[in-house]
C-alpha cells in the first residue's frame, strides 16, 4: 500500500457511477422474463416439462460455448462509437427481436421453432453481457469507485427484482388469472421498454470512457482467440471466482425460479401475493445491510466480505428452513409474531445475498487487471468476462435441470406448480430444498474457493501501481 499515492487511477464523475451502475438491469430484465419461458414453452409450444428443462440446460451450455467467439469480436471492435457501446446495443436489439418472435409472432409453435428462437436470443444476450462486462473493467480502476459501482449495481438489481416481483404477483397475475400467455406478453413488452430506457442511460454514462486510450492493450500487446483458454488455465484467482460465484448462481437461480416461487408461496404457504409484497418489504433493510457489507469490501477487500457474508447467509437460510418446517408457513402474512420473525430472518438472508452480488463485479475487474500484469499488458476485459460467464453458465445451466427434474420426481411431468395445488409432504420438501437448501450449498462452495483466492486489498494496490507506471511509460 505504500505506493498507492503514486498510482494514477482512471476515475469517473460521481453521477456517472450511479448512471452506469444501472446497466445490469438491462440483462436482468431479459433474465427475469426468461424465468417464465417455461410456462410459454409448455402452453404455446407443446413441450413436456422435462424436455423444456433439458433444452434450457443445453442452451446455457451453448451460450457458454459462444462466449469466446463473441468476446473475440468485442475485443476486436474499434469503431467511432467505441468498443463496447455498439456491442451492447446489438445485444439488446437481438434480444428484443427474438422475444417478440417467441412471445407474439411465432405462437402457437413447435419444438424446433422454440429452440431456434431461444438460441438466437442467447447470442444476443451474450453480446450484451460480454460487452458490458468488458466495459466495467475500463470504466474505472479506482478500488473505491469500483466498490461503489458494485454496490450501486446491486442496489439497482435489488430495486428491479423487488418492483418486478411485485408487478408480477400483484398486478399481472391477478389481471390475467394466472401465468398464462397474455400475462407473459404483457411482461415481455414491459421489460423490453424498461431495458431500452436503462440502456440509453448507461450508454450516456460511459460515453467519455469507451475510448481507445482505455480499452486498447499496452506495451504493444494484442488479443488472440486463444487468450480465453490460456487465461482460464493459468489464472487461479479467476478459477476461484468461477467456483464461488458459479456455484452461488446455480443455487440462487434454482431458488428464484418462477416455479419454485410458486411452489413456496402459492402452494406451501398458500399466499402467492405475499411473494411480491415480500420483495418490497425487505428491500430497504436488505439494501442497508448490503451498504454495510460493501463498506467492509472497500476497507478490507472483496475476499473478506465474501467470507463473512457467506457464513452469515448459511446461518440465516438454515433458520428460515427451520421456521417453515416448524412454525407454520401458512401463518406468514397472518400471524404477527411468525411474520415478524420471518421478515427479520429473510431481510438478513437477502442482505447477505446482495453483498455477494455486489462484490462480484469489482472482483472480476480486479482479476482483469491481474491478468494484464501476468500477460505483460493485454487488456482482456471482454475476454475475462466471457471466460467467467462461460464457466459460470456451464455450471449454472444445471439450474433449470435441477428444478425440472425435482418437480418431475414428485409428479409434475406435464405441468408446473400453480396456486390451488394440494400441499403435500413431497412438494414441501422439494420447495424448501430448492429455495433455501441449495443456496446453503452454494455458500459452502464460496467459502472453500476463497481459501485459494489471493487478491486481497494490498495485492490489488500493487497491480494498479504496475498498470499506472506502464501507462505513463507509453
Can you describe what's shown?
- The protein has 20 helices and no strands.
- The protein starts with 13 loop residues before the first helix and ends with a helix.
- The radius of gyration is 22 Å and the shape is globular.
- The longest helix is centred in the last third of the chain and has 40 residues, at 336-375.
- Helix 2 (24-34) packs antiparallel against helix 8 and helix 7 (143-176) crosses helix 16.
- With 474 residues, the protein is mainly alpha-helical.
- The model has no long low-confidence stretch (mean pLDDT 82).
- The chain folds into two domains: 13-219, MFS general substrate transporter like domains (Growth Hormone, Chain: A, Up-down Bundle), CATH 1.20.1250; 220-467, Growth Hormone, Chain: A (Up-down Bundle), CATH 1.20.1250.20.
- It has helices spanning 14-21, 24-34, 37-44, 49-76, 85-105, 111-139, 143-176, 181-206, 212-215, 227-234, 236-256, 258-268, 273-281, 283-300, 302-326, 336-375, 381-396, 398-409, 425-450, 457-473.
